[in-house]
Amino acid sequence: MSSLIPIYIYHTNDLHSNLQQWPSAVYYINARRTFHKKKNETALFFDLGDHADRVHPITEATRGKGNVDLLNEAGIHHVTIGNNEGITLSKKELESLYDKAQFKVLLANLFDQKGNRRPSWAEPFDIIETPEGVKIGLIGLTVPFYPFYKELGWDIKDPLEILPGLLEEVKKQSDIVVLLSHLGYPQDEELAEQFDGIDVILGAHTHHLLKTSILINDTLVAQCGKNSYYVGQIKLLYDKEAKKVVKKSGAAEDVSHEPPALETKQLLERLEEKANKILEEPIAVIPEPLPISWTAPSAFADMLAEGLKDWCNADISMLNSGILLGSLESGNVTRKELHYLCPHPINPCLVHVKGSVLKETIAAAFTEKMIHLPLKGLGFRGEKLGRMAFAGMTVEVDESTGDDPRILNISIQDEPLDPKKIYKLATVDMFTFGPLYPGLSQSSKKKYFMPEMMRDVLANMLKKHYA
């Protein structure tokens, strides 16, 4: 009898509630499960987070519990969470998200603010044993978005602070160690180079697609892109006599053209019906349409800018009109309609900004490049950034100068903008990340309003005006 034992791992990640694709991924998963069962081989099935994304009405209405139902139905064994599960839900909603999960949730670096590992469903690691007696240690880590978790009442730890001691503990109990990572490919590379003893890192978050998994410092690193158009397959060959893995290989399998799994499709239909009923909640009745334009001033964007200023108790506000995906017609307005018009998982943010930085930011915002930027990521789910809308300030623009308009004057509460003054600016959180507007991202004083999103601000404004 051979001492070589094959072990197979299948992994999904970053579905982002692209639920129309999920039944095809499940069809592939079910087929592989049946194949290995007939051969009496060990096959494990994992998801690496961001399965839920509140851009989808089902996720919005069920606060992610519909996604848990889908993971249950797919027969997933273990998951870790992504930032979409972690920071787009309230603390209470995250605590209860996995109440009905039929799988284990591994999450080693999330704690409450008293230092206790939380939520109640989170386990830092798990040790499973195959029928052949091979022990596999599984660890889960998620990306530490510090200010967001803090605003929600959590304490998220640096993975590099958590992993060394945890890895030593797991290695003592395991023949094979697998890390379920929602940290991003650059961090996965760093961990593979820095730590010995991790056999496989299953990665997510940055949406890298490695059609063939990469071996780094004897650690196999796998990535499957996003939206579950690919499912990862890992094969490990374990020598029980030598007590080590003697061969590792992995690939991202294209499942985009697989037929949908019938039972998954039927479950989605039931969840959609449930979501529609929840989202029928009335918000307001408006007497006349609120138009939106992505390239010119518009009443709808101006109203949302005013609501954002009030929500954040700010001096001024600015937001991009592309955050609204369409105009609002007159008549009854429901939660479903607001979700359709403003689906982004984007939070209000209050930034303390110097007048000179504000002026520079506004000038950049009026360039054709920024207005028509087809932004992907940072929570934005629209087509283009769109023209900037303001509240609490007036921006005079000369649009006769060619492609990029020239800013003639900026006044705040009827006073000229003071380059040296610090203003309290309400804006959208994505403007405080990275390269869009460096002056805002480099601000030292920011407050994020969590877990409210821009559609909550919009609903509040409509209720105030029209309820």
The figure for the number of domains is: 2
The secondary-structure class comes to alpha/beta
Radius of gyration, in Å, reads: 24 Å
* Percent helix range: 25-40%
Order the strands across the largest sheet as they lie in space: 6-4-3-2-1-14-15
The CATH topology of the largest domain corresponds to Purple Acid Phosphatase, chain A, domain 2
Name given to the CATH architecture of the largest domain: 4-Layer Sandwich
| Unreliable stretches | none
Strand residue content:
25-35%
Give the CA-based shape: elongated
**Tally of strands:** 25
Fold and architecture overview:
With 467 residues, this protein is of the alpha/beta class. The chain folds into two domains: 4-275, Purple Acid Phosphatase, chain A, domain 2; 281-466, 5'-nucleotidase,  domain 2 (Alpha-Beta Complex), CATH 3.90.780.10. The chain contains 15 helices and 25 strands.
Keywords:
alpha/beta, Purple Acid Phosphatase, chain A, domain 2, 5'-nucleotidase,  domain 2, 7-stranded mixed sheet, 6-stranded mixed sheet, elongated
Layout of helices and strands, plus pairs?
Blueprint: E1 4-12, H1 22-38, E2 42-47, H2 57-62, H3 65-74, E3 78-79, H4 83-87, H5 91-96, E4 104-106, E5 110-112, E6 122-123, E7 125-129, E8 135-142, H6 146-152, E9 154-156, H7 159-173, E10 176-182, H8 185-194, E11 200-202, E12 214-216, E13 219-222, E14 230-239, E15 244-254, H9 262-278, E16 282-286, H10 299-312, E17 316-320, E18 331-334, H11 335-341, E19 348-354, H12 355-365, H13 368-371, E20 388-391, E21 393-398, E22 406-412, E23 415-416, E24 422-428, H14 438-441, E25 446-448, H15 454-466
Parallel strand pairs: 1-2, 2-3, 3-4, 4-6, 8-10, 10-11, 11-13, 17-24
Antiparallel strand pairs: 1-14, 5-9, 7-8, 12-13, 14-15, 16-18, 17-20, 19-24, 19-25, 21-22, 22-23
Helix pairs in contact: 1-9, 3-9, 10-15
